[in-house]
Amino acid sequence: MHFAGLPLTTLLAIFGGVGATAVVLYLLKLRRRAVPVPFARIWDHVLRDKESSQLFSQLKRWLSLLLQLILLAALVLAIGDPRFGEASTRGRSIVVLIDASLSMQAVDVKPTRLAQAKLEAKRFVRGLGSSDRAMVVQMDMLPTPLSTLSSEPSELEAAIDQVRAEDTPADLARALAFAEDTLRGLNDPEVVLVSDGALDTSGASSHIPIEILPVGSGDTNVAITEFSARRYPLDKSRVEVMLEVTNTNDRPQEIELSLLGDGVLVDVTRLLIGPNERLPRFYSDISGASRRLEARIKLGAGKIDDLPADDRAYALMPERRRARVLVVTRGNTYLEAALLLDEYLDVSFVEPSAYPPKERFDVTILDGVAPTLVPSTGAGLFLNPPPDKSPIKLDKPITEFGFDRWNKKSPLLRFLALGDVQVARGYRIVPDKGDEVLGESDLGPILVSGMRSGQRVVVMSFDPRDSDFVLRPAWPLFVLGAIDAFIEEDTGYLSSFRTGAPWRIPAASSAETAELTTPRADKVIVPVKEGRAAYFGNKAGFYKLRSLGPEASEHEFAANVGDPAESRIKPEPKLKIAGKAARVAVPGTPGVRHRFWAYLLLFVAVASVIEWITYHRRVTV
Amino acid sequence: MGLIDRLRRSSHPAPAPRESLFDDDFQRKLEMLAIVSRRVFSGRLRAERRSKKKGSGVEFADHRDYVPGDDFRYVDWNVFQRFGRLLVRLYEEEEDLGIYFLIDCSSSMTFGGRKKFDQARRLCAALAYVGLANLDRVTIVALSDEVTARMPTTRGKGRIFKVFEFLSSLEPSGLTDLGSALTTFVAQHKRRGLAVLISDLYDPQGFEAGINVLRFNKFEPYVLNVFDRRDGHPELKGDLRLYDCETGEEREVTVTPGVLKRMERALTEYREGVERFCTSRQVPYFAADVEVPFEEQVLDLFRRGGFLR
Question: Could you say which of A40, A46, A50 has the minimum Cβ distance to residue B243?
Answer without folding.
Answer: A40
